Amino acid sequence: MFSDYIDGYVGNSGPVRAVPSLERLTPQEPARPERPPEPRRRYRTIWISDIHLGTRGCNADLLIDFLDSTGSDTLYLVGDIIDGWRLKRKFYWPAAHNDIVWRLLKRAKRGTRIVYIPGNHDEMFRQFTGLNFGGIEIRRAAFHDTADGRRLMVLHGDEFDAVMLSHRWLAFVGDTAYHLLMAANNWVNAARRTLGLPYWSLSKTAKHRVKNAVEFIGRYEEVVSRAAAERGLDGVVCGHIHTAEHRMIGPQGRQVEYWNDGDWVEGCNALVEHEDGRMEILDWPAEVAAREERLAATGAEADRAGVLAA
Ligand SMILES: [Mn+2]
Questions:
Q1: Which domain holds residue 131?
Q2: Which of 27, 62, 263, 294 is the most exposed place for a label (fewest CB within 10 A)?
Q3: Do residues 235 and 228 make contact, with C-beta atoms less than 8 angstroms apart?
Q4: Tally of domains in the chain
Q5: CB 89 within 8 Å of CB 95
Q6: C-alpha span between 172 and 170 (Å, rounded)
Q7: Which Gene3D superfamilies does the annotation name (predicted)?
Q8: What is the CA radius of gyration of the chain?
């Protein structure tokens, strides 16, 4: 009764019913159940960036699949993890986006070292540089030593937009046009899924046909690499331009490695380091397609075996 509540609260003569007992609050489970932590593909290091949680463009399903399929000693979140720019305009937060945050926190709890380097879309977290949230370290940039002794600079990469005369890379498409293209990308892929077709990046295809975009990307890669060379490093890992890439850049004998870990809006890529220091860019939609083909093949074999046994 309302009057009981008031009595209990004001008169302090009875229990306050509106407040649940803390012991009865159970830990929240994700909407999509997590696959068991073993067996998973193990890496020394994983880099992912440009997830853009809070936007329709984010490929949450593929990322959840990636997170449930892999594990590493260290995980770098290389910026634009949450899209504060879009969220400020319109709140959008489906259960799948919570599930990603849940999985990241769980990973940290299980012992993965997680370093979060906020980007320009999640720059509101830059004010917490040096702090630690649930085991996730927030840094402005980081240095990574590979197993075979290379030293790499890790940063989001928007720092170089000002250096390049063309301002922000989105300038030539505009944030809204880009957002619409990303939404279209998801509709196309929802349709393709129903038809049983694999993931295909509409925006990636579109971008590579635009001459300006290609020139921009090339210039960006050079500017970032020069920064690493000037600091005497072996290379750089960044994100920001949504284009996964590995190139050796610079004059002969003084070349540095340029790595871009891609994004989870268009390409759905991750950069990984194996135990021996070897690095590679994973194309997750291709990995999923290969896995499904393998499953179909072994399924067919099992069927055949069943027929032969009968
Ligand atoms: Mn960015």
A1: 43-299
A2: 27
A3: yes
A4: 1
A5: no
A6: 5
A7: 3.60.21.10
A8: 23
Q: Please give the distance, rounded to the nearest whole angstrom, from the Cα atom of residue 156 to the centre of ligand 1.
A: 7
Cα–ligand 1 centroid distance for 200 (angstroms):
22
- pLDDT tens-digit map of 298-309: 877 766 666 554
Are 14 and 7 spatial neighbours (Cβ–Cβ below 8 Å)? yes
Q: How far is the CA of 132 from the centre of ligand 1 (A)?
A: 22
Q: Which helix (H) or strand (E) holds 75?
A: strand 70-77
- Residue 240 belongs to a domain: yes
CA 57 to ligand 1 center in whole angstroms = 14
pLDDT < 50 regions, the chain: 1-11, 165-168, 172, 309-310
Determine the pLDDT at residue 218.
82
Find how far residue 42's CA is from the centre of its chain.
17
Q: Is 29 within the bounds of a domain? A: no
Phi/psi-derived region of residue 111, left when phi > 0, alpha when psi is between -120 and 50, beta in every other case: left
Please provide the distance, in angstroms rounded to a whole number, between the alpha carbons at the two ends of the chain.
68
For ligand 1, the distance from its centroid to the CA atom of residue 241, given in whole angstroms, is: 7
Query: Distance from the CA of 25 to the center of ligand 1, in angstroms?
Result: 37
CA of 100 to the centre of ligand 1 (A): 19
pLDDT at 6: 44
Give domain status of residue 22, yes or no: no
Report the CATH number that the domain containing residue 261 is assigned in CATH. Answer: 3.60.21.10
**DSSP code string of 11-27:** I--S--TTSPPGGG-PP
Angle at 271 between CA 268 and CA 273, to 5 degrees: 150
The model's pTM is 0.80
Identity of the residue numbered 199: Y
* Ligand 1 centroid – CA 68 distance (Å): 25
What pLDDT is stored for residue 71 in this prediction?
97
